[in-house]
Amino acid sequence: MPHPLNTPLGRFGIDTTHEGADRCVASIPVAGLTNPCTGEATVAPLAMLVDHIGGVVNHLRRGTGEWTVSSELAVEFAPGAAEAIAAAPDVPVVGVARPFGQKSGTALALCDLSVQDVVVATATVRSFYIAAPADLVTWPDAASGSRPGNRLADLMAVEIAETGSAGSALTQNDDPVLNNAVGAVHGGVSSTGLELVGAAALHRAAGAAFHTASLRVNFLRPFHGGGEAHYAARALHAGRGSGVAEATAVGADGRTALLARLTGYR
């Protein structure tokens, strides 16, 4: 089931083929997308797929009067993931999420992502349960709108920001299409932004590209675009073989909304 273009999932071309509390299956086209900070091919949009399928599995396990809020997202990328995606440019990445362990005040989903028969990533999404909000934004069911272009920067409504240091930054413009049901930037979009600036910070510090091996995100509060909203990262270590970067997403109000740590290898 393709999603309307005026939703976050439709904007990124996600196609959901199964939704249930026991399993969620969906795909996303990734080949050809590049990091706006470096111009290099990127695996960052896989975080969009992970947030969707893992979040659905956790959400559909909710009880009466409950709602889910994502609290953690972690992706482990297989060596050669970017190459496997590039080798099959017309084949989307398929993700399958299943519940892991029992539901309590939180729930955990385990995800596997692959291109054809090649596994490119494994991931987890942890959610916690809150009372269902009184006001929710209803996503449109009918197809409408259009994509703003094919570049990842256009899909995300981000622009390169000057940092004047060894870090990297992207501003997150206000685009209602990118918002979730509570009116904040979709967690997959913001996680993608964190990977982009984290990878760029390592590239800038070392003068060469690193292959992202892992991305770990903590969601602290709702992230709203516009105003002071941006993603920023700095390299904590950029050695001959490996590197580690720390990234943050700062909301329109100037408060840190997400934290992330990215590890990469040459």
From TrEMBL:
Keywords: Hydrolase
Protein's UniProt keywords contain Transit peptide: no
Superkingdom of the organism of origin: Bacteria
Keyword Hydrolase set for record: yes
InterPro entries: HotDog_dom_sf, PAAI_dom, Thioestr_dom
Residue ranges of every copy of the Thioesterase domain listed in the record: 183-256
Gene Ontology MF terms: acyl-CoA hydrolase activity
SUPFAM superfamilies: Thioesterase/thiol ester dehydrase-isomerase (SSF54637)
Record protein name field: Thioesterase superfamily protein
Organism whose genome encodes this protein: Mycolicibacterium chlorophenolicum
